[in-house]
Specification:
This protein is 56% helix and 19% strand. Strands 1-2-3 form a three-stranded antiparallel sheet. It is built from three helices and three strands, in the order αααβββ. By secondary structure, it is an alpha+beta fold. It is rod-shaped.
Amino acid sequence: MTRRLVRPVLALRHVIHRVRASHERGSATIQMVVLLPALFSLMFLGTQAAVMYQGRTIALAAAQEGARVAAGEYGSATAGITAAHDFVASTAAGLTGTSVNGFRTATDAGITVTTHTVSVFPGWNPTITQSATLPVERLTTG
């Protein structure tokens, strides 16, 4: 008796599966065509964010190094600018077109580093600008 019920149930399952499969034919391909460009765009966006973060960090470190040198007791704005240029040049981060400006007054010394970082998107050249200012070292009598 159970054998008689099993065969029609299996046959019915096979028919239902065939009907479902014919309606969903090609749906995986369409899903991949829609989802892959979105997935790749998201991946490239994350990579670009990481590259820009690295460039910003290096530019900030260079500005801080230059400001530290310029703010020294016997430092100068020129020495700070040179130190910042040397710092950026010593990294292999792909920063291009770096320009450094600086100043030194009787109380403060500051350096500004402007550079361009690598872009994973064609035609876009991100610019990064970072600054650092420190008080000038001086001897006081007290």
